[in-house]
Specification:
Blueprint: E1 4-8, H1 15-25, E2 32-39, H2 50-68, E3 74-80, H3 84-94, E4 99-103, H4 117-125, E5 130-133, E6 146-149, H5 160-165, E7 173-179, H6 185-208, E8 213-219, H7 222-232, E9 237-241, H8 255-263, E10 268-271
Parallel strand pairs: 1-2, 1-4, 2-3, 4-5, 6-7, 6-9, 7-8, 9-10
Antiparallel strand pairs: 5-10
Helix pairs in contact: 7-8
C-alpha cells in the first residue's frame, strides 16, 4: 500500500476523477495526502492575488472532501516553478512521497501540453510510482481489472508487490505477453509454450494471495496489442514497470512506452525499477 501520496491538482474539470482514482488505490484512511498545485507565474504567489485566492479556496474544498471521506492527514502544497514538471518532481521528492497522481489532460497547471509530453516526462523522470488518470476513463473502481504486460523480466513485474499488498481490493489481474519476433513456426511454438508455463505460474501465485488472475498471449506490435487488449478486456488500470526487455524495452524511455501512455484509453500505474541492471 501507499503511505504518502501526492495529488498534482490542475483544478480542471477532471480533478474529481483524480480524487476518485486516489480513493480506489489508497483506501486506507491513514494515508498521508498532499494536494499539490504548481503556480507557473511569479505573481500567482501573492496571497492577495485573485488567482491565489480562487485556486487555494478550491484546494481547501478538496481538502474538506478528503476529511469527510475519513482522511485526516491532508496538507495543501503551493509550489512556484515556471516549469511545471520541475515543480512536481521537486515537491514529490521534498515530501518523500511513495505515489504521485495526476490527470493526463487539463487546463491551468498543465495546459494543452499535458496531453502528451508532460505526462510522458513526469512518468519518465519520477523516482516514485506514478498514477496517470486518463480523462476519458473515469471509473468507480480502478482495481477491478488490472492489465499487467510482461516480458518476464523482474522490471516488468515490479508492480506485483504493490498489487499483492492490495489483495483485498483487487478484482482481477490479467497478464499479457506479446510475441513480437520469431524466425519460424517452430520457434513461435516453443516461445508460446514457454510463455504459457511461466504465465500459469504467475496466475497460480496470485491466486495464493486470493487474487483472481488469468493470462493472454498475443502476437503483433507490443504497444498496439496492449492498448487493444486494455480496451477489449475492459481493463480499469494498466500496471507496468518503467523498463524491461521485449514487450516494454525502454518503457517510458522510448516510443513503445510513449505509444502506450498516449494511446491507451486506460489509466496507468507506472512503477520505477528496483535497481536491476539495464537490459
Amino acid at each position: 500500500m501507499f503511505d504518502k501520496v501526492m495529488l498534482a491538482m490542475d483544478m480542471s474539470e477532471r480533478t474529481d476523477d483524480l480524487l476518485g482514482a486516489f480513493y480506489s488505490l489508497c483506501p486506507d484512511t491513514e494515508t498521508e495526502v498532499y494536494l499539490l498545485h504548481v503556480a507557473t507565474r511569479e505573481e500567482d504567489q501573492d496571497i492577495n492575488s485573485s488567482y491565489y485566492k480562487k485556486t487555494f479556496s478550491q484546494l481547501q474544498g478538496y481538502e474538506k472532501d478528503l476529511h469527510k471521506a475519513g482522511y485526516d492527514n491532508v496538507s495543501i502544497i503551493w509550489e512556484y516553478n515556471p516549469v511545471p514538471l520541475n515543480g512536481i518532481l521537486s515537491a514529490s521528492v521534498g515530501r518523500d512521497v511513495d505515489l504521485l497522481c495526476l490527470v493526463s489532460h487539463g487546463k491551468g497547471l498543465f495546459e494543452s501540453a499535458f496531453r502528451g509530453s508532460m505526462t510522458f516526462d513526469v512518468a519518465r523522470s519520477s523516482l516514485v510510482p506514478v498514477l496517470i488518470v486518463k480523462e476519458e476513463h473515469a471509473r468507480e473502481n480502478y482495481l477491478e481489472r488490472i492489465l499487467v504486460p510482461t516480458d518476464f523480466s523482474r522490471k516488468s513485474l515490479v508492480g506485483l508487490s504493490v498489487l499483492r499488498n492490495m489483495h483485498d481490493h483487487v478484482g482481477e489481474i490479467l497478464f499479457v505477453h506479446v510475441l513480437e519476433r520469431f524466425r519460424s513456426e517452430d520457434e513461435l511454438r516453443v516461445k508460446r509454450e514457454t510463455a504459457q508455463n511461466m504465465l500459469q505460474e504467475m496466475v497460480e501465485e496470485m491466486k495464493t494471495f486470493g487474487i483472481p488472475a488469468r493470462y493472454i498471449i498475443d502476437q503483433g506490435i507490443a504497444s498496439k496489442e496492449v492498448c487493444r487488449l486494455a480496451e477489449t478486456e475492459k481493463c480499469t488500470l494498466i500496471c507496468t514497470g518503467k523498463t524491461g526487455a521485449g514487450l516494454v524495452k525502454g518503457l517510458l524511455m522510448g516510443s513503445t512506452a510513449q505509444n502506450i501512455t498516449l494511446n491507451t484509453p486506460c489509466s496507468l500505474l507506472i512503477m520505477p525499477g528496483r535497481g536491476e541492471d539495464e537490459e
